Amino acid sequence: MTDVREAETTTSSNDNGPNPPGDFIWYELITPDPVGAKAFYDAVVGWTIEPQPSGEMDYRMISRSDGRMAGGVMRLTDEMASHGARPIWLGYINVDDVDSTVASIEKAGGKVLLPAFDIPNIGRIAMVADPQGAPFYVMKPIPPAGQEKQASDVFSPDQPQRVSWNELSTSEPAAARKFYGEQFGWGSDEFMDMGELGEYRFLDHHGVRLGALCGVSQGQQPKWRYYLRVPSVSVAKDIAQQKGGQVHMGPHQVPTGDYIIIGTDPQGAEFALVGGQ
């Protein structure tokens, strides 16, 4: 949760660094088998997930080929599973004040899944769910010493080995638009008509298209899906299947010209890829 990049300008006067409140600043895979996840994602995406660090918590950093961070991997323990945790990718949203944001989310009908707590030298975080049940984190980071003017670059619309699209599938699109707009300042005025599938609403923040919001498929729960950018989706699909993953959709071309696939990694977490054919 400490990745940063040089920022040419800042769009906010907040003290979280150059990332304005409402930015995605970190991504985390929760998995019962970090070693297996490393074998899968290192091969499919081109990352290097570090070996198990020393200490009680098994939390591993994900390095990109450019030497910067892409996110983290947390081991899903039996205790976590007993409380309902499951293999999943989760995003962290930057906020000015975690406690007041959590209170606002609760007031708007959301739920606290993990109360706010401090991680020394990293920041304060909480895990919450929106009113429809999709989970995510909120975080006020502590910038590393000497890097106060650098911004997280774990999200990028077009750079490889990063999340390039954040997609919310929800049971109540209109209510979700209102919730995320009020909590994080996201705009969602533009949309693509999907016919019987409803509207595919684009999510914009400080001039950047973060992703989109749409209705949930029948029988599925509301959730966030994060698309990892790779050079070739077809090549990555073959590798994913060779490494024990399952591909449920794609390659499928989207209006941007990119191709996407959606699948499940060998440890049970849904993954999505975007890139060239």
Number of strands: 18
Indicate the percent of residues in helices. Answer: 10-25%
Envelope shape: globular
* Widest β-sheet, arrangement of strands: 3-4-5-2-6-9-8-7
**Mean pLDDT over the residues:** 92
Structural class: alpha+beta
What oligomeric state do these chains adopt? single chain
Radius of gyration: 18 Å
Strand composition percent: 35-45%
User: Main β-sheet: number of strands, strand sense, barrel status?
Assistant: 8 strands, mixed
Report on the structure:
The structure is a single chain. With 277 residues, the protein is an alpha+beta fold. It is 18% helix and 41% strand. It has five helices and 18 strands. Strands 3-4-5-2-6-9-8-7 form an eight-stranded mixed β-sheet. An eight-stranded mixed β-sheet has the order 12-13-14-11-15-18-17-16. Strands 1-10 form a two-stranded antiparallel sheet. Strand 8 and strand 9 form a beta hairpin. Helix 1 packs antiparallel against helix 5. It starts with a strand and ends with a strand. Mean pLDDT is 92; it is low at 1-14.
